[in-house]
User: What shape does this take?
Amino acid sequence: MPAISANKKPLNNEAVISLRDLTAGYNRHAAVHHLNGEVRRGALMAIVGPNGSGKSTLIKSIVGVLKPMSGTCHVARDVTMAYLPQQSELDRSFPARVKDLVQLGLWQRRGLLSRYRNEDRQRITEALCAVGLEEFGDRPIDTLSGGQLQRALFARVLVQDADLILLDEPFNAVDEKTIRDLVALLRRWQAEGRTVVVVVHDLDLVRASFPEALVLARRPIAWGPTAQVVTAENMTRARQFQEAWNDDAHWCEPAPALQEA
Ligand SMILES: Nc1ncnc2c1ncn2[C@@H]1O[C@H](COP(=O)(O)OP(=O)(O)OP(=O)(O)O)[C@@H](O)[C@H]1O
Assistant: This one.
């Protein structure tokens, strides 16, 4: 694959994301609560948990689109961020070509209205090559398959050249070959010293490709080396916590079924 940027090797093991008793949610109802922990520079980490367990909410809190209800979510100074939301949150009907979509990754550097330079066009071409879409630059995005769109979105992340990359369920409805190619990109980003946090449902994929994981069920069930935390026991506990959660409860009260656990 062509090199797009200089290495961003970690200088040390500093925390890129720090969570201190973070509670976040919507309309005064907590969706995740009492999260404490740190993501170190250069981590390749998966967030796993049942549907509705707060994974997207946590990612949105880190990105800053959702303000904490209490506690703090701190991203280290000078860390640039790239965020890929779930595909369901994207409007594919927007009349854009694949290279326009990828170009959007450059706007923080160039501004929306400035002219793009030759080096930018080169960067976009390299990114499309890196995700196997070199022939797709002029295709309208609404003609892409789900897997091709995901590749194009990874190309947009590539050109962003960010220190911290947050991806929400990038492997949903994507075939095995595409998953393999995109996981190779995640590994490349980590090898370049970037910090990568990904919401993933496929636990076999997490065990095979992510050294670190957070098991979430509205609260942290376990967080650490994947082999130690993505266990059948922890996934059962996560499911039980999730099923016992009362959406209307005050956020500091544990769900009744769990108070004696
Ligand atoms: N915009 C919103 N307004 C109100 N409630 C929301 C909103 N987004 C999410 N929620 C609620 O917050 C809780 C956590 O949702 P979240 O999307 O964070 O879970 P998730 O673990 O990412 O789920 P999934 O695996 O299904 O994508 C759910 O009860 C959900 O209904």
Observations:
- Residues 26-27, 31, 49, 51-57, 247 surround adenosine-5'-triphosphate (CB under 6 Å).
